[in-house]
Amino acid sequence: MKQYFVMLALLMLMVGLCASPALAQDTGNVKGVCKDVEGKPIAGGIVEWVNIDTGRKYDIKTNNKGEYFSLGIGPGHYKVTLLGPDNKEVFHFSGFAVAAGDNTLDFDMKKEQAAAAQGSGLTPEQVKQQQEQQAKAAKENNTIKGLNEKLAAAKTAADAGDFDTAITQVTEATQMDPSRDLLWAKLGDYDLTSAAKQTDSAEKAKRYEAAVTNYQKAVELKQKALDAAPAPKPPDATKNLASYYNNLGKGEAQLGKTDDAVKAYNQAAQLDPAGAGMYYFNLGAILTNANTKNDGEMRKAAAEAFDKAIAADPNRADAYYWKGTNLIGAATLQGDKMVAPPGTAEAFQKYLELQPTGPHAEEAKAMLQGLGAPVETSYGKKKATTKK
Question: Is pTM, for the whole model, over 0.70?
Answer without folding.
Answer: no
